[in-house]
Amino acid sequence: METADIEFERIRRGIWAGPYASKPYVAWNDLSRVLSTLVKWSRVAKNRKKFDEVVYNSFKELLEKAKGDIDTKIKALSTLTQQDVDVVTVTIIATANIVRVLRNSVVDFPTNQFLQVKTGLLDTIMESIGFYHNVSETCRRAKFRYPYALTYSPLCYEVMRACLQVTSNLCVGNQAVQGAVWSRLYPGMFTTLLESSDKTVKNYVCSILFHCVAWRASTHLEKLFISDAGKNIVRNAVALVEQPNCLEWAQILIEGLICADKFIDLHDICKESQRTFTLLGYRQ
Q1: Is the dihedral of CA 166, 197, 35, 130 positive or negative?
Q2: What is the tens place of the pLDDT at every residue in 155-211?
């Protein structure tokens, strides 16, 4: 049995946890190294067959434990010791690798996609998107008083990117997942993330929007065009296809909306925001 297989089995059995002051304790530093190995390991097709409901529940518990540990530290940002700073850093890095493992595990494997939804992992992942966005914003605002907080924002973006990738993958061709994602992210989180300073985050958000709305039979398509919040999302997406900073999934989203017979609606929204010429470039 290879080392990665052994470590995977340890996580599956919950051996990462142990008693510490009567509460579950995770040695994030050690676990982070293990997870880095498992990210590569999970890219191999035969290894994806080893994921099951038990291991997904274990990963879900790890994600929730990480959020709790980080939340406690961030709320006490002004009193963190150097050791605390290091612990937060390695915990966020470990979290990003957990989500990357989860992302890799569902590639071309519908059974694992189903299990991530069944175990509630999808809900935990979507909660993580909002949580790490808030942590990033808190640290960004505090960077002048506590310079060490500045290191957390880019790490939080790593987690958010991976979470959005998993969410997008689970949305492909699955209307039940699309509905769950839509109810959780529309309109507030979609709007917030499309205004992010991170281009990759915005790109992945557009991929989720594409899977949810850019086809004629979508039950969510009309909502984009009948409310001010929805129109604002569309307006932000159109802005992301402007040159020279055009994002790939933003372009695919706009093209999909046009194919779904929404060109006139798009035109009206663009006319209000003076982006008509941007849109006309997609009307061939």
Answers
A1: negative
A2: 999 999 999 999 999 999 899 999 999 999 999 999 999 999 999 999 999 999 999
Could you identify the residue written with the tokens 């050791």?
A: 83
Amino acid identity, position 88: V
First to last CA, the chain: 57
Cα angle: 132, vertex 136, 142; to 5 degrees: 145
Residues 6 or more apart in contact with residue 39 via CB below 8 angstroms: 97, 100, 101, 104
What is residue 174's three-state secondary structure? coil
Rg, the chain, Cα only: 20
Q: Do 143 and 87 touch, CB atoms closer than 8 A?
A: no
By C-alpha distance, which of 240, 243, 242, 188 is closest to 210?
240
Q: Would you say 157 and 136 are in contact if contact means Cβ atoms under 8 Å apart? A: yes
pLDDT digit string (tens) for 34-61? Answer: 999 999 999 999 999 999 999 999 999 9
Measured CA to CA, the distance from residue 15 to residue 254 in angstroms comes to 47
Whole-structure pTM value: 0.91
